[in-house]
């Protein structure tokens, strides 16, 4: 049968660029965020880094 595939290499967060991605938001212009940036204390930084469409997709 099939073997086990190793861990998936996740991209860095689209806002802080440090943490591993946890959430993907938006359909047309997806944004990948880590747990801290997804509704955490870095929301203001996220707002500054994202386009209007991305902010709307994230409800920021």
Report on the structure:
The protein is of the alpha+beta class. The protein has a domain at 23-58. 23% of the residues lie in helices and 10% in strands. The protein has a two-stranded antiparallel sheet with strand order 1-2. The radius of gyration is 13 Å and the shape is globular. The mean pLDDT is 70.
Helix content range = 10-25%
Using the alpha-carbon principal axes, give the shape: globular
The overall strand count is 2
Query: What is the percentage of strand-forming residues?
Result: 5-15%
N-to-C CA distance: 45 Å
The major sheet is characterized as: 2 strands, antiparallel
Structural class: alpha+beta
Q: Uncertain runs with pLDDT below 50, 5 residues or more? A: none
Q: How much is the average pLDDT?
A: 70
Number of helices: 2
Query: SSE order, as H and E?
Result: EEHH
- Using only C-alpha atoms, the radius of gyration works out to 13 Å
Which strand order do you get reading across the main beta sheet?
1-2
List the helices and strands and how they pair.
Elements: E1 23-25, E2 31-33, H1 43-49, H2 52-58
Concise summary:
With 60 residues, the chain is an alpha+beta fold.
Provide keyphrases for this structure.
alpha+beta, 2 helices, 23% helix, globular, single chain, 2 strands, 60 residues, two-stranded antiparallel ribbon
């Amino acid at each position: 049968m099939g073997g086990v595939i190793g861990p998936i290499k996740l991209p860095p967060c689209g806002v802080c660029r440090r943490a591993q991605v946890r959430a993907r938001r938006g359909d047309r212009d997806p944004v990948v965020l880590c747990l801290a940036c997804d509704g955490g204390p870095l929301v203001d930084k996220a707002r500054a880094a994202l386009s209007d469409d991305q902010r709307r997709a994230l409800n920021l």
